[in-house]
Amino acid sequence: MTIGTLVLLRHGESEWNALNLFTGWVDVHLTEKGMGEAKRAGELLVEHGVTPDILYTSLLRRAITTAHVALDAADRLWIPVVRDWRLNERHYGALQGKNKAQVKAEYGDDQFMMWRRSYDTPPPPIESGTEYSQDSDPRYAHLSDAPLTECLLDVVKRFIPYFEETIAKDLKAGKTVLVAAHGNSLRALVKHLDGISDADIAQLNIPTGIPLVYEFDNDDLTPRKIGGTYLDPDAAAAGAAAVAAQGK
Ligand SMILES: O=C(O)[C@@H](CO)OP(=O)(O)O
């Protein structure tokens, strides 16, 4: 049996990435640069002969648009699409809309890193009815217990069971699956695939707009290469370093 290929794609640069703001579930647009990254991602898929059979996205326009532009560039816009909130970015609680450098200056490096990269400490919850809360957002109306903040562990708990039920089954059926999502939802998935410890995952940052390809030998979905393969490794290394440096 041939196991399929998994392609992870973090959205291109968003308006709030450019402004250095905590974003989470706030539904911001891509910048022109982000649109260009998305197009380049599609071109990289073509150059490397990667042809997605199905797309999974979050419910957020920065991931949806990135996938749309990339698949258009790859002439694969017609493939089936599944959208689910469980691929969403980590809900950033009361930090949503706040500037990363200002939060770091106000609360100090340790608290900033704890909120940003600790595995199991969420930021304070967002208050209902405030500007960047999602309590009246129709796309989450069906959730009885929508999060008001999340740590990475919360993302693992919502995303990995969903991955096992859906994306993993498509991979075991031999499909090439494109997952268009977010820095922290993809960190949760990479942690699971690569078996990264709760402590070490703090060091992993995912760059915007560069396809990361995982291949598997067996249907236990152990990666053939730990860490997968970025289709533009130099740009990926520079992009990941830039994410790590946010707030400086
Ligand atoms: O603001 C966010 O939602 C995320 C991704 O952009 O930021 P960070 O990398 O700080 O977790």
UniProtKB/TrEMBL annotation:
Its EC number is 5.4.2.11. The active site is at H11, E89. Pathway: Carbohydrate degradation; glycolysis; pyruvate from D-glyceraldehyde 3-phosphate: step 3/5. PROSITE patterns: PG_MUTASE. The keyword Isomerase applies. GO terms for molecular function: phosphoglycerate mutase activity. Pfam families: His_Phos_1. GO terms for biological process: gluconeogenesis; glycolytic process. SMART domains: PGAM. Substrate binds at residues 10-17, 23-24, 62, 89-92, 100, 116-117, 183-184. It catalyses: (2R)-2-phosphoglycerate = (2R)-3-phosphoglycerate. The record marks H182 as: Transition state stabilizer. CDD domains: HP_PGM_like. Keywords: Gluconeogenesis, Glycolysis, Isomerase. InterPro entries: His_Pase_superF_clade-1, His_PPase_superfam, PG/BPGM_mutase_AS, Phosphogly_mut1. PANTHER family: PHOSPHOGLYCERATE MUTASE. Catalyzes the interconversion of 2-phosphoglycerate and 3-phosphoglycerate. Belongs to the phosphoglycerate mutase family. BPG-dependent PGAM subfamily. This is 2,3-bisphosphoglycerate-dependent phosphoglycerate mutase. The gene is gpmA.
